[in-house]
Amino acid sequence: MEHPDTLRSMANLASTFWDHGRWEYAEQLEVLVLQTRKMKLGTQHPSTLRSMANLALTFSSQGRWEHAEQLQVQVLETRKTKLGADHPDTLTSMANLAFTWKSSGRNAKAIELLRSCSAKQEQILGLDHPDTLSSSGTLLEWGTKALDVNA
């Protein structure tokens, strides 16, 4: 069960459960994969961080905002330290945390974080990158302007 291919298969199965709204099954597998990766690879390994991020998204889908936020903050801070604040994976973590904050009613914090993320995505990834377009569109959807950082 500790072989990387086995863990990847388990993570893929968890993703399939997630896609079908079977959160409990997804969570069970994600927890198992995360625990094994932490033990084998350490807490700062990219695969471990990806597992943490996936589990956080499952918690978000279940409305378990505190659990999701806790993991997302950990992933974001580790990625900032290991990859840098402008790395695309770090920016993805920022966007995920912004969505969790928005869903849990912390609109001002969510908008502020997503604005910062969107500005960095524009700089690093370009205006036409799907992640940049997604963040900008979400900010418009949330009733704010993507580039209006002084608002």
Explain this structure to me?
InterPro entries: NLR-like (IPR053137), TPR-like_helical_dom_sf (IPR011990). The chain has 151 residues and is mainly α. The chain folds into two domains: 1-62, no CATH class; 68-151, Tetratricopeptide repeat domain (Serine Threonine Protein Phosphatase 5, Tetratricopeptide repeat, Alpha Horseshoe), CATH 1.25.40.10. The chain contains seven helices and no strands. The chain has helices at residues 4-19, 23-41, 46-61, 65-83, 88-103, 107-125, 130-141. Helix 1 (4-19) packs antiparallel against helix 2, helix 3 runs antiparallel to helix 4 and helix 5 (88-103) runs antiparallel to helix 6 (107-125). The protein starts with a helix and ends in a 10-residue tail after the last helix. 34% of the residues are buried.
Task: Kindly summarize this structure in a few lines.
The protein has 151 residues and is mainly α. It is built from seven helices and no strands. The relative contact order is 0.08.
Structural class comes to: mainly alpha
Count of strand segments: 0
How does CATH name the architecture of the largest domain?
A: Alpha Horseshoe
- Number of separate structural domains: 2
**Number of helical runs?**
7
The helix content is: over 70%
Beta fraction:
under 5%
Helix and strand element order: HHHHHHH
Could you name the CATH topology of the largest domain?
Answer: Serine Threonine Protein Phosphatase 5, Tetratricopeptide repeat
Shape call: globular
Output the CATH homologous superfamily of the largest domain: Tetratricopeptide repeat domain
Gap from first CA to last CA: 51 Å
Largest sheet: none
Q: What would you report as the Rg, rounded to the nearest angstrom?
A: 16 Å
Organism: Penicillium argentinense
InterPro entries: NLR-like, TPR-like_helical_dom_sf
Protein name: Kinesin light chain
Pfam families: TPR_10
